[in-house]
Amino acid sequence: PETLVQDIMTTDVVAMRVDDDQEDVARQMTKYDFLAIPVVDEVNRMLGIITYDDVMDVLQQEATEDLARMGASEPLGQRYFNVSILNLIRSRVVWLFLLAVAATLTVNVLSYYEEVLEQVVSLSLFIPLLIGVGGNAGAQSATTIVRAMATEEVCPRDILRVLFREVRVGILLGSALAFVGFLFVWLFFGLDMGMIVSTSLIAICTLASLVGSLMPIIAEHFGVDPAVISAPFVTTIVDATGLIVYFIIARAIFGI
Amino acid sequence: PETLVQDIMTTDVVAMRVDDDQEDVARQMTKYDFLAIPVVDEVNRMLGIITYDDVMDVLQQEATEDLARMGASEPLGQRYFNVSILNLIRSRVVWLFLLAVAATLTVNVLSYYEEVLEQVVSLSLFIPLLIGVGGNAGAQSATTIVRAMATEEVCPRDILRVLFREVRVGILLGSALAFVGFLFVWLFFGLDMGMIVSTSLIAICTLASLVGSLMPIIAEHFGVDPAVISAPFVTTIVDATGLIVYFIIARAIFGI
User: What stretches of chain B adopt beta strand conformation (E)?
Assistant: First the structure.
């Protein structure tokens, strides 16, 4: 009974600053398994505490926001059936428009190569397949890196290490697809198309891994939520650049 | 001191069954703000407890898994830099191949309409734009519904309510895009192409919202993780069906 508080207290305290992000609090609490964490101001005056139940809510909310942004919509902020049709549209329309405007780039690229398309109409048959594969490979890299940054496994200064890893993954995935793709396309569309499609698959998968891992890191560096550089956004960029690669390869192989 | 445990205990206990999913535990704990929850077997014998710190780890882990699957890769299960290049490839190659095989559907669709493409080469200019918009609209619906099911705001028996909402959203988003798209395409590519592209935008956005919201609900109904019916998977289906819609509209308007 005569023991004072100062005799039993811990003096090496982990505290959060009042202006920290709620995600940082969640990370600290998860790391140290705290029940509660004190919140202090810039001169270490205690302003309040955050408890484990608040943190569980924050973790849920942050996951919901990241998922929404990865799918190119704004988080709804309330239960699905409580959101009006108008607000559902609001959460999606801006990104859908921005991505559609960005996608007009693909119209420009194809217009530029329209003469090549006129000469070899069968080139157009593989456009959705190639940009689809590129989009998927880009989305795979992007989601991996976005999540790795959210859990602080990767930070912007790791950029070169990440790019080196992802580019190797892209080359190898592209080569595997190219091998199977070459046999299939050669069989049904001839040797020239087989070579064009398989070379394009390698180039586009490499490009997609590069763009997909680079964009979230750049976003984080500039203080933008990396999840906003969502899979669809990466896809749109890979679509346009992938088409250019495809036509460059096609012109080289057909000699036109 | 003479008070027995039975006098102070709570008898109305929320407990988890030993064979419950870890996601259910996380949901119960988040809902009731418990510090710990007992785990019992089928005859209510206590086997252990789960504490709040385990739940915080589960919440993080489940969010990581859902995000990975939405991006068409398997969860890594460990820190990014600890995963070898070979295992990164393993986490992606199966989905990338499956999606590429599914995407060969688009090659079939375009082959079927190759004669139309030969007659009107400029139809191919809008293929990436249209399937891009369809993919984005589908991903928006899919991510919204996947998350709403993960947080138990939506369950499979809500299917008709969800579809009715999402289809209205799709029609309205498609109409907004069609209005802007019509002016742009009319100006640069003529009235016929303007009508074809804008009508297709409405049809494809509606179709995408339908597929994007339907697929996760069907997956949940059959006990498959809805996140696996990922945005890229929805995209691939919307790509192929969207192209069919586009060519049906084009043939009707050009009368070929």
Answer: 16-17, 36-40, 46-51
